[in-house]
Amino acid sequence: MRLTEALHQLNDKPLLMGILNVTPDSFSDGGHFIHKETILRQLDKMNQSGVNIVDIGGESTRPGADPVPLAVELERVLPVVEWVKTHTDAYISVDTYKTEVMAEAIQLGVDMINDVNALQAPGAVELLAKHSIAVCLMHKQGQPKDMQQAPNYSGSVIDDVKNFLLQKAEYCIDKGVLAENIMIDPGFGFGKRLAHNIELFEGLEDLAALPYPLLVGVSRKSMIGDILGGVAVEERMIGSVAAAILATLKGAKILRVHDVKETSEALKVVLSLI
To answer: How far is the CA of 144 from the CAs of 44, 140, 151, 154, in angstroms?
Structure first.
């Protein structure tokens, strides 16, 4: 079954997207998964935990991160796509905003493009219009290098984010991307301070009511650390799982997480008891 079909047949249980950052500088697991052996061990853990989608990223988009040259990102990502294809039955996503990386990944048979830039790079929309695979459009304000320096919203954060995502989705559809292939991500932490993130989370039901499956990614992010009083990244697992469960109850269809096993077990308990 294609990923887009699976998304539209969901009931209460969301799909779990396991994060696989093959970067030296990602905020949580940078440098952990840059060798084939460690990557395959992590895939084994994800498989045993019931992962549905593996999201491969070759460039950190954490606040303050510098852009990565195209050749470096391709060198990081493409071999990993090949390894993942032979090591899991899960759907494969590539987390990139570069059209050239999207094109190479699509040629390798990935199921999804996860774009923090909402297909705004030259040629990205046209590429996805030619290939019927899932695509996630994310909201962000600014660029990773400076997005947290002075984020500003003229009115309601939820309204700004909703309007942006609707406009981008409609533009993509006008250019030939199938509506059924589009999902949306409000972009927690991307040009948003804690108050913005909290307001956005409180309004998730509004985004879940839109005609596109909602992806939520708050795993180990600074908003979790801030809510818990400034705890370090490695101490944010429980808070991240709690937020993922709440996002599910608010209508999220995909949860992008580092801790697949813990999130899966919490989901099983909560959805069995509500």
So the answer is: 31, 9, 12, 21
Structural domains counted in the chain: 1
Residues 112-126, mean pLDDT to the nearest whole number: 97
Instruction: Name the residue range of residue 262's domain.
Output: 3-273
Catalytic residue chosen out of the listed positions 98, 192, 236, 256? 256
- Residue 269 makes CB contacts below 8 A (sequence gap 6+) with none
Active site residue 256: yes
The CATH number of residue 249's host domain is 3.20.20.20
Model confidence at 31, pLDDT cuts 50, 70, 90, reads very low
End-to-end C-alpha distance for the chain, whole angstroms = 29
Catalytic residue among 62, 193, 221, 253: 221
The mean pLDDT value for 52-68 works out to 84
